[in-house]
Amino acid sequence: MNTSLMIIIVLVGVGAFFGMVLAMANKKFAMEVNPLIEEVEDILPKGQCGACGYAGCAKYAEAVVEDESVPPNLCVPGKDAVARKVAELTGKKAEATEPRYAFLRCRGTKTAAFYAAEYEGIFDCAAAKLVQGGPKGCKFGCIGFGNCVKACPFGALSMGEDGLPIVDRAACTGCGKCVQTCPQSILALKSFDAPVEVACSSHDKGAVARKLCKNACIGCGMCMRNCPHGAIKLEKNLAVVDSTICREKCTEAVCLAKCPTKAIGALVDAKSIRKTA
Is pLDDT of 46 > 60? Predict the structure, then answer.
């Protein structure tokens, strides 16, 4: 018999033998998958954002089905609608969740911010930050290379012509992926009924902050002194709003008119919030 033919026959035989062995092993050691896990996974939004604290939707589905201590409302993008469905499937109680969206704490646009250097490296915020904190003079603000936009699994962010990311509040699920990605830590998750917020992250002193960005908070304290409810404090030259106090007590956001750089802005109408609260 031809030698090459014999080799082919032997290889086919060996392959068939090991194929049968693997098939038998797979059948013997196969683990049964709880069909409820697949049902739960099917109703999750599949953003794989990790906001639930697990490595993707499949892992959360497995955990919420098999572990009694895992609540059904951890899927932030899914919000209450998904939480109710997961609770119904798993027989658990779903607590109400507060919808949130990503808010950019910076107004350092191309025209407002001072550029200290021209950056020619990798078009990436984290990479640019390694080179003297980025091209802008303000080292606290948005670098503007869109890492957050690329990280958003739901297409809720886009880069504006002014060099800053734009958040589509209607599309934003509040998963926090952009917050985790931003090397400047200037994206924050805000409640939809938070009346006002400071769109700045600079801790530079007033004169320096204003020199580096026309829209910067200069830490003058005007908003703090004019807030009748004590909802605004100064922390390291930066005004910080307590959204809970602001939401519960504010009927007229007088702080907005007092800010000389308009670093603090209205997110929603305070009076309408007060009436519907």
Answer: yes
